Amino acid sequence: MPLIRRYDEPDCRAILPEFITKRLVVSCKLPLRFVILIGYSNMRLRTMTNRDVVAGLRLNTLAGWNQTATDWHRFLDASPEGCFVAEIDEQVCGTATTISYQERFAWIGMVLVDPQYRKRGIGTQLLRRTVEYLDQCGIPTMKLDATPQGQPIYEKMGFVTEYQIERWILKRLPDQIVKLATSNIAPLTEAQLSTIQDKDQHVFDADRSQLLRSLHSETPEFAMGVFEQGALRGYALGRRGSFADHLGPWMAESRSAAKTLIDEFLRRSSRDTLLVDCLTANPFATELLCARGFSPSRTLTRMYRGPNAFPGKPDSLCAILGPEFG
Ligand SMILES: CC(C)(COP(=O)(O)OP(=O)(O)OC[C@H]1O[C@@H](n2cnc3c(N)ncnc32)[C@H](O)[C@@H]1OP(=O)(O)O)[C@@H](O)C(=O)NCCC(=O)NCCS
Fold first, then answer.
1. CA 250, 318, 245 angle in degrees (round to 5)?
2. Spatial separation of the C-alpha atoms in residues 23 and 213, rounded to whole Å
3. pLDDT tens per residue across span 1-40
4. Which residue, 60, 94, 124, 296, has fewest beta-carbon neighbours within 10 Å?
């Protein structure tokens, strides 16, 4: 489609490579609004399907992210109409996903652009498409966990900061890994799992039991509860990612419950790399992680757009499920 656009219009950015636009704007020192680009855009946005999972995996691997094909299927199962790809010459060069939680709020995730197509407005257009979609669905609040690269795009679309999250990583040597047979791990009972789901609904402020059940059925050994005299004091679930095992959500009402859960996760995982996305305000999570050799690897900013009427109870949360899920 031929396009004539002012440079400061977002969809103009996909027309020409960055070095040409930089030459026009930076070298010629022209104000953005006076730069008119005439070009031919072959970028298009469309709904993501199961056939795009391989392309999605390629993009998250290029970005050094930990998702697997199972995670991409989780997004598509939860939101068959609400995940999007950007294509250039029929090759997927960007993605964005959404999950609606009981129509109280929706989560935006997997905003990814192929490194060779960045800074041309594709990320902005993908985000705009997800916001339009969620607006059409009548969902009042949109939430996400932004990387430092993504945060400026979200701010321009009206997202504001709620709190800070930090990703912690542990790299273990083979002799630091306990070789625990799965048969030695007592699985959660159905009653315990449903108590955990109820508690999670209270902490997260929406029912995401389908997602928790899918984590539980994939890796039952990472689903744990701390019960004291029959009462649930803490719980955790986890995932096997492409390069690391990921703990989350990790919720605990006391330091001792938090300690039991992290130590049990370290015992139950057989991978050398482990990840946890901690709430920086939690009083004991980072101290427990430091003491076990974890170190901070990157920051994330929880952001929302809309009324945030369902903020959850972050006080008892040591770690989120993951930035792509909430
Ligand atoms: C974050 C990410 C999705 C952004 O994608 P993108 O397509 O580069 O985003 P855009 O082009 O819409 O905007 C990025 C910046 O480039 C600028 N830009 C856009 N077109 C440009 C052009 N032709 N020339 C120069 N700059 C341009 C935008 O103004 C914006 O600038 P800002 O950072 O000052 O706000 C991409 O960098 C990425 O995949 N990063 C790794 C994964 C990640 O962190 N994702 C975010 C998860 S929250």
1. 45
2. 52
3. 444 455 555 555 555 555 666 666 666 666 655 555 444 4
4. 296
Q: Would the CB of 109 count as within 6 Å of ligand 1?
A: no
pLDDT of residue 2: 44
Is residue 272 packed enough to be buried (19+ CB in 10 Å), middle (13-18) or exposed (0-12)? Answer: middle
Helix, strand, coil percent values for the chain (each to nearest 5): 35, 30, 30
Q: Is the CB of 287 under 6 A from ligand 1?
A: no
Gap from CA of 177 to ligand 1 centroid (Å): 39
**Would you say the CATH fold of 166-319 matches that of 2-160?**
yes
pLDDT digits (tens, 9 = 90+) for 275-311: 999 999 999 999 999 999 999 999 999 999 999 999 9
165 CB within 6 A, ligand 1: no
Which CATH number fits the domain 2-160, given the four candidates 2.40.360.10, 3.40.50.80, 3.40.630.30, 3.30.420.40?
3.40.630.30
Stretch 264-268: mean pLDDT: 95
Whether 39 is in the pocket of ligand 1, judged by its Cβ within 6 Å, is no
CATH of 166-319, one of 3.40.50.970, 3.30.565.10, 3.40.50.720, 3.40.630.90: 3.40.630.90
- Give the span between the Cα atoms of 197 and 181, in whole angstroms: 26
Going from the Cα of 150 to the center of ligand 1, the distance in angstroms, rounded, reads: 7
Domain ranges of the chain: 2-160, 166-319
